[in-house]
Structures are given as structure tokens and as C-alpha cells.
Amino acid sequence: QGKFTLLRDTRTDGSFLVHHFLSFYLRAGCKVCFVALLQSFSHYSIVAQKLGISLTAAKERGQLVFLEGLKSCLDLLFGEEEQQPGQPSPLQFISERNSDLKALFDFVRMSLTPADSDSWNGPVLLVDDLSVLLSLGAAPVAGLDFVPFCREAV
């Protein structure tokens, strides 16, 4: 409770840790918001099944909120995303001149805000690769601001 962990991998692939933390926190009964920018839902779902976790079931229970960055980027760029009134796309910075991450932060905050009926052990935010945000056009300062805002939200 109240911990912040930032993983950085150099010269080796540390993505197995993302799978480990995802399965660990779902098993622990935590509410998980997963911002997946590097891989698809099906990729994470297949690995989770091998670890004995069903991501689809966790989503249906409301335990897992999954933002599939790859699909959202394509939908946003090609105008196929179905916008909810008053709810901008979490990745709207891609199609705007403004490269801040406010909409993404708002998505994370709303995803982790407990509802009255929630009985989850605690909120957990997983982001598989923050550097992808820079590749998508987010300003480096916005990326640096995003981390402490998310830490505060959790």
C-alpha cells in the first residue's frame, strides 16, 4: 500500500516483470488499471492464461481496466474511435497540437477511483512502456509530469 515501483531495463528485456506484477496483483484482489502501450490485449491475455489468470474475467468483474494503446492509437488516427460524450480519448494528444497527457491521467484517475460497490484490496497502475508515449508525440516534460501525478492518484 502506498508504494511506487519504476522498472527500467537496459541491455535486457524486463517485460516478464510486467506479466508477473499483473498476475500478482490480480490474484491479490487489487483493482488494476493497465495502460498497455507496447503489446495488445490478446498478447497479455495469452501470457496471463499460462500463469493461471483470465484477463477477460477480470475485466468483466471490473477488477481490470485495460487501455489497449495500439488499438486506441489506430482508431484515433483513422477516426474510427467511438467517442463518449464529454469523455476525450485517453490518447488524444496524438491528434492534437497539445502534447500534454491530461486526458490519459484523467482516464487513470477515473479508472482507479473506487465505486461504492468496490471491494478491491487497493488500486494498482501498470504501464508497460512509458517511452512509447514519447514516440507517439508526448512532450518529455509531460511524460515526467505524468509519473508523479499517477503516483499521487494511486
UniProtKB/TrEMBL annotation:
Q: In which pathway does it act?
A: tRNA modification; 5-methoxycarbonylmethyl-2-thiouridine-tRNA biosynthesis
- Gene3D superfamilies given in the database record: P-loop containing nucleotide triphosphate hydrolases
GO biological process entries = tRNA wobble uridine modification
Q: Name one Pfam family in it.
A: ELP6
Q: Which GO terms describe its cellular component?
A: elongator holoenzyme complex
Which InterPro entries does this chain map to?
ELP6, P-loop_NTPase
Give the family from UniProt.
Answer: Belongs to the ELP6 family.
Protein name per UniProt? Elongator complex protein 6
Q: Which organism is it from?
A: Tauraco erythrolophus (Red-crested turaco)
